[in-house]
UniProtKB/TrEMBL annotation:
Keywords: DNA-binding, Transcription, Transcription regulation
Listed Pfam families: HTH_1 (PF00126), LysR_substrate (PF03466)
Protein name: HTH-type transcriptional regulator YhaJ
InterPro entries registered for this protein in UniProt: LysR_HTH_N, LysR_subst-bd, WH-like_DNA-bd_sf, WH_DNA-bd_sf
Highest taxon, organism lineage: Bacteria
Example GO molecular function: DNA-binding transcription factor activity
PANTHER family: HTH-TYPE TRANSCRIPTIONAL REGULATOR (PTHR30126), TRANSCRIPTIONAL REGULATOR-RELATED (PTHR30126:SF88)
Recorded family membership: Belongs to the LysR transcriptional regulatory family.
Keyword DNA-binding: yes
Ranges annotated as spanning the membrane: none
Domain (HTH lysR-type) ranges: 6-63
């Protein structure tokens, strides 16, 4: 088993000597004697058999090798500091890891600013962001495997705060047969054409949601794949407006008008599946998502 020759304290002393421009100022900052710092750095160099510092006048300067070693040592001491802070946070019931399930229907332009705000206060907690769809999102709530869930549906017995809204629109290629029909498209017309469907991430998918009456269906795992197929003039698909707006605007895709309904409005909620067991980090992220939400003004009224 490997045993380290050096100690974290030796590297901290070396960093202080460099950062404060010499042994005297570093000793004052660390509340140690100058001789103890001299001894620690000298021992460090002997243990490594590498010259790290050279003294010119009253100032200590890094050698070329010392610059490389110092740079790497800062990562080491920071990791130790983070590790110690994480241990303290665990003792204070701050979660070492937070899992958030995010349905693909949620506009992530609201998610990223919230995560950016949350990060400085996250206390080193790891964050797992898992994308889900349809029943898979519902399972994240009902089975409680995620600490937070952003969902366009609310299973019975659960509560959530609305944080965004969007709408799903049926689209196809401008040269698709459906795009050439005059007037609104009849549902019978849709049933005769290939429909692209986003894969349900549930362990036991239950295709009960959405319009799924087409005899022909291709299932894909992402919006990006669906769009790639649409751009090749393959099938039609219901997609969120925030995904397709620019493609419809530049006429790469055609938005279908359908008799009875040309869009499906969606409200996304942030849900705490197990609210009584949420730790302080989860609660902070929950509040941050609400504050950064599209409905923020309504919450402040």
């Amino acid at each position: 088993m490997y045993r380290a020759k050096t100690t974290i304290e030796q590297w901290r002393i070396l960093q202080a000597v460099v950062d404060f421009g010499g042994y005297a100022h570093a000793a004052n900052h660390l509340n140690k004697s100058q001789s103890s710092l001299n001894h620690a750095v000298a021992k460090l160099q002997d243990q490594l058999d590498v010259k790290l510092l050279e003294v010119k006048g009253r100032k200590a300067f890094l050698t070329e090798a010392g610059e490389v070693m110092l740079r790497r040592s800062r990562h080491l001491t920071q990791n130790v500091r983070d590790l110690e802070e994480l241990a303290a946070n665990i003792n204070q019931d701050w979660e070492p890891e937070i899992t958030i399930a995010v349905d693909l229907a949620y506009p992530k332009k609201f998610l990223y600013p919230a995560l950016k705000t949350f990060y400085p206060a996250s206390r080193g907690s790891r964050l797992r962001i898992i994308e889900t769809v349809l029943t898979g999102t519902e399972e994240a709530i009902t089975e409680g495997w995620a600490d937070l869930v952003i969902s366009p549906m609310m299973p019975r017995g659960f509560l959530g705060e609305p944080i965004a809204e969007c709408s799903l629109h049926p689209v196809c290629h401008p040269q698709h047969e459906l795009a050439s029909l005059e007037g609104p498209v009849d549902l019978n017309d849709l049933q005769q054409h290939l429909q692209l469907v986003i894969k349900d991430t549930s362990k036991t998918p239950n295709e009960k949601q959405g319009w799924l009456k087409s005899e022909q269906r291709w299932t894909v795992s992402s919006f990006e794949t669906a769009i790639d197929l649409l751009l090749e003039n393959i099938g039609f698909c219901w997609l969120p407006d925030f995904i397709i707006a620019h493609l419809v605007a530049d006429k790469s895709l055609h938005r279908l008008a359908i008799k009875g309904s040309s869009l499906r409005p969606v409200i996304c909620y942030v849900v705490k599946p197990k609210p009584d067991s949420c730790g302080p980090g989860t609660n902070l992220l929950y509040q941050t998502l609400i504050q950064q939400s599209a409905f923020n003004t309504s919450f402040q009224e």
